[in-house]
Design goal:
single chain; 87 residues; mainly beta; 2 helices
Length: 87
Amino acid sequence: MSGIGKMAGNNGTYVLNNTSEATMKIKAIYIAEDTIFTKITINGVDVKGQYISDNSIPVRAGVMITPKGGYLFGSVQLTYGQVSLIL
């Protein structure tokens, strides 16, 4: 598998660039531009605070967030910004 294939995952990516909630099985979140999250869920529970220390400050472009403990993120919603969800 190529480097892009490893990074994108077997199921590809989904670009979230609005405030709609994206609900899908998400292996990782790549922040494409400075972003503030409304929520990040695992099994329906908002876990944003377990991954972002201060949500009033944008997460900077270039950061990758991956779920802990073998879980998948279940949904992501943005206040503003743009992310690529790795499926």
